[in-house]
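Let's practice the habit of predicting before peeking. Look at the sequence and jot down your guess about where helices and strands might fall. Then scroll down.
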Amino acid sequence: MDALKFMKVFDGTGDVDAWLRKTRLTAKMVGIADLATVLPLLLEGSAFAVYQHMDPVKQQNAGEIVREASNQGMGRGTG
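Done guessing? Here is the structure:
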């Protein structure tokens, strides 16, 4: 997926809201219809650890992935 080279990874630090806005915009621009299908590839460190422990149904929804990360106290408005 060449489109992923335009997207930054998220490691659980920094501003998750800003990251998500940029990621959603980039996904739209490169034609990715369902962000949840590629979001796990953009997660590293503690952010990926949170994803791995999520309910499989929630893993299919980009909003749920970000909400879960935020509930874990990662990256909300710190960057």
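How did you do? DSSP finds three helices and no strands in the chain.
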